[in-house]
Specification:
Blueprint: E1 2-6, H1 11-23, E2 28-33, H2 41-44, E3 53-57, H3 63-73, E4 77-80, H4 87-92, H5 95-115, E5 119-125, H6 152-171, E6 175-180, E7 183-184, H7 193-202, E8 207-210, E9 216-218, E10 220-221, H8 222-235, E11 240-244, E12 249-251, H9 252-263, E13 270-273, H10 288-294, H11 302-315, H12 317-325, H13 328-336
Parallel strand pairs: 1-2, 1-4, 2-3, 4-5, 5-6, 6-11, 7-10, 8-13
Antiparallel strand pairs: 9-12
Helix pairs in contact: 1-8, 3-5, 5-6, 7-9, 11-12
Bound molecules: nicotinamide-adenine-dinucleotide (NAD) and thymidine-5'-diphospho-beta-D-xylose.
Thymidine-5'-diphospho-beta-D-xylose is lined by residues 85-87, 125, 127, 182, 192-193, 196, 208-210, 215, 217, 252, 276.
Length: 339
C-alpha cells in the first residue's frame, strides 16, 4: 500500500505518519508538504532515513508537480491534511486559506481522478458546523448538523468538504471525510492555545486568554485522531462523513489554569485580552457513528494526555524554542502586541 500524506510536516499529519509507519510494516508513505511557517523538517528528522518514507517539498496547488508525484508513485490512498489551519491568521489574511484549503483540495482530487485511486480522504474539522450555545449542553454536532461557518478558516474547510462530496457524486471519486474536534499533543505549533500557553508559562510570559475564557472546546489527544483516520481509510464507507471527538469539553480558562498548576506557575500570568472576532462559543462532537460503524473510541483520557503533552514540551524545548525565536516573534507582536 502506498499512501500520500499531504501536510505531513505539520502537527496532525506528522503524528499520522508516525502512527502508520509504526502500525504497518509494509506501507510506503509519501509526504507532500509545502513547508509553510507551520511545516517543520525537524519533526520528520527521525524517519528521513526510513526506506518506506519519501518527503516531497511541494505545494498541493502545484498541479504539474502533484501529477508528477502520482505518476511516479501510483498511490492507493491520499490523506489530505495540508491546510492553513489557524483561525486567527484567517481573520488577518483569508486569501491563502481559500487557495490551499479549497483549490489545493481540487488539485489533489483531479490527480486522483486522472491516475485512479482506492480512496481520497479529506481531513476536515468540527468548525464547519459553526458553534453551539453554552446554555444547551444537551446539543452536539452530528454528521447531519447543517454546515454553518463562522471564520474564513472554517468557511474554506466547509467549501473543501462540499467539493469533496461533489467529486464523489459527480465523478464517482471514492472519498471519505472526517470532522474532528480540537487536537492536542506533541508537535502542536505554538500559535495554538495549549502549546502557546505551555511555552509562555515556561518563559514566565503573560497568558493571553481571549474574552472571558468561557469558550468551550472538545479536546482529543492527537493519536486518537490518527487511529480514527486509519480506521476510516481502511473500513469507512465511501461517500460518508465521520465525526471524531471524545466528549471532553473544557472551557479555555480551565485549561489555562490547569497548565499553570501543572507547571507550578502563578495564575497571575493570565491576562484577559480582546476577544477573537466571530469567536465560536462551543464545539461538541457526537461520535456515535464512528463508534457504532467502526468501533472507534478515544483511548487517551485528558488527564493522561495533558501530562504526556506537557512532558513532551518540557523534553523537547529545542523544537519549540527554535520556532518561537524566528518569524514567530513578528507574528506574536502583530497578534498580541496591542491586544
Ligand atoms: P498545521 O498547521 O500544524 O500543519 C499544516 C501542514 O500543512 C504544514 O506542514 C504546512 O506546511 C502544510 N501546508 C500548508 N499549506 C500547504 C500547501 N499549499 N501545500 C502543501 N502543504 C501545505 O495543521 P494541523 O493542526 O496539523 O491540521 C492538519 C489538518 O487537520 C488541517 O486540514 C486542519 O484543518 C485539520 N484539523 C485540525 C485540528 C486541530 O485541532 N489542529 C482539528 C480538526 C481538523
Ligand atoms: O492565545 C490564545 N488565546 C485564546 O484564548 C489562543 C491562540 C486561543 N485562544 C482561544 C480561542 C479558542 O476558543 O482558545 C481556543 C482554542 O483556540 P485555537 O487553539 O486557536 O483553536 P481553535 O480556534 O479552536 O481551532 C482548532 O481546532 C479546530 C484548530 O486550530 C483548527 O485547525 C481546527 O480545525
Amino acid at each position: 500500500m502506498t499512501i500520500i500524506v499531504t501536510g505531513g510536516a505539520g502537527f496532525i499529519g506528522s503524528n499520522f505518519i508516525f502512527h502508520m509507519l509504526k502500525t504497518y510494516a509494509d506501507y510506503r508513505i509519501i509526504c507532500v508538504d509545502k513547508l509553510t511557517y507551520a511545516g517543520n523538517m525537524s519533526t520528520l528528522a527521525g524517519i528521513m532515513e526510513d526506506s518506506r518514507f519519501r518527503f516531497c517539498k511541494v505545494d498541493i496547488c502545484d498541479r504539474a508537480k502533484i501529477y508528477e508525484i502520482f505518476e511516479d508513485e501510483h498511490p492507493d490512498i491520499v490523506v489530505n491534511f495540508a491546510a492553513e489551519s489557524h483561525v486567527d491568521r484567517s481573520i488577518e489574511n483569508p486569501e491563502v486559506f481559500l487557495q490551499t484549503n479549497i483549490l489545493g483540495t481540487q488539485v489533489l482530487m483531479d490527480a486522483c481522478r486522472k491516475y485512479g485511486i482506492k480512496r481520497y480522504h479529506q481531513v476536515s474539522t468540527d468548525e464547519v458546523y459553526g458553534d453551539l450555545p453554552l446554555d444547551r449542553p444537551d446539543l452536539f454536532f452530528t454528521e447531519e448538523t447543517p454546515i454553518h461557518t463562522s471564520s474564513p478558516y472554517s468557511s474554506s474547510k466547509a467549501g473543501a468538504d462540499l467539493l469533496v462530496l461533489a467529486y464523489h457524486r459527480t465523478f464517482g471519486l471514492p472519498v471519505t471525510i472526517s470532522r474532528c474536534s480540537n487536537n492536542y499533543g506533541p508537535y502542536h505549533f505554538p500559535e495554538k492555545l495549549i502549546p502557546l500557553m505551555i511555552a509562555n508559562a515556561l518563559n514566565d510570559k503573560p497568558l493571553p486568554v481571549y474574552g472571558k475564557g468561557e469558550n468551550v472546546r472538545d479536546w482529543l489527544y492527537v493519536e486518537d485522531h490518527c487511529k480514527a483516520i486509519d480506521l476510516i481509510i481502511h473500513n469507512g464507507r465511501v461517500g460518508e462523513v465521520y465525526n471524531v471527538g471524545g466528549h471532553n469539553e473544557m472551557a479555555n480558562i480551565d485549561i489555562v489554569k490547569l497548565i499553570c498548576k501543572k507547571l507550578d506557575k502563578p495564575e497571575s500570568l493570565i491576562t484577559y485580552v480582546a476577544d477573537r472576532k466571530g469567536h465560536d462559543m462551543r464545539y461538541a462532537i457526537d461520535p456515535t457513528k464512528i463508534h457504532t460503524e467502526l468501533g472507534w473510541l478515544p483511548e487517551t483520557k485528558f488527564a493522561e494526555g495533558i501530562d504526556k503533552t506537557i512532558n513532551w514540551y518540557l523534553e523537547n524545548r529545542k523544537w519549540w524554542e527554535t520556532i518561537i525565536s524566528g518569524e514567530y516573534q513578528n507574528y506574536y507582536e502583530k497578534m498580541y502586541g496591542n491586544r
